[in-house]
Amino acid sequence: MLHPSQFQVNEAWVAFQLNDRPIETMRDGSFNCVALMDAASCLILGNTFIPTTVAAPSSIELRRLLEAGWEHKRQYPTTLLVPKGQLAAVASTEATLHDIEVIPVEEDQLLSLIGDARQGFREFIRGRGGREA
User: Fold this and answer.
1) 23-25 and 12-17 as β-strands: parallel, antiparallel, unpaired?
2) Angle at the Cα of 33 from the Cα atoms of 11 and 50, rounded to 5 degrees
3) Is the pLDDT of residue 7 over 70?
4) Domain boundaries of the chain, sorted by first residue
5) Using an 8 Å Cβ cutoff, are 34 and 87 in contact?
6) DSSP E strand boundaries for 8-71
7) Does domain 4-127 have CATH number 3.80.30?
8) Which helix (H) or strand (E) covers residue 116, if one does?
9) Is 11 helix (H, G, I), strand (E, B) or coil?
10) Are strands 101-105 and 23-25 parallel, antiparallel or unpaired?
């Protein structure tokens, strides 16, 4: 399992789905929240909401996430960790433009990095009266 202590700040970022279950809205339907986080500091650098009808963020949405990270750090990481699956394919295309190596990993290997962020988001949604489906 990967751990924040294995990384230097800004060496690696992690792109992952922040919510455990779809986020329901009365007006616009269901969404997933994809977040970008620094692996060492666990600082959330940005996020985007994508409809559940879409398997992964678009190239434009991923580009915006990477740009949000750049705005925080003023540089790109050397590595982007992503769970294996659809997100990995989109991430590879966009990250290559910034000389970022994309490393797809099993999601359970990311849990020590992303677990607290997911828990905090879950509590935030519940505290705001929102509900996950």
Assistant:
1) unpaired
2) 115
3) yes
4) 4-127
5) yes
6) 12-17, 23-25, 29-38, 44-51
7) no
8) helix 111-127
9) coil
10) unpaired
pLDDT by residue (tens digit) across 46-88?
A: 999 999 999 889 989 999 999 999 998 899 999 999 999 878 8
- Comparing 89 with 109, the larger pLDDT belongs to 109
Question: What phi and psi values does residue 26 have, to the nearest 5 degrees?
Answer: -70, -35
CA distance linking residue 127 with residue 5, whole number of Å? 31
* Greatest Cα pair distance in the chain: 42
The rounded distance, in Å, linking the Cα atoms of 108 and 131 is 25
Residue 9 pLDDT greater than 70, yes or no: yes
Predicted confidence (pLDDT) at residue 130 exceeds the cutoff of 80: no
Residues 6+ apart with CB under 8 A from 63: 94
Cβ atoms of 72 and 47 within 8 Å: the answer is: no
Residue identified by tokens 């294995």 is 6
* Total count of residues recorded for the chain: 133
Phi, psi for residue 88 in degrees, rounded to 5: -60, -40
Are the C-beta atoms of residues 111 and 4 closer than 8 Å to each other?
no
The stretches of 14-109 forming alpha helices (DSSP H) are 59-73, 86-96
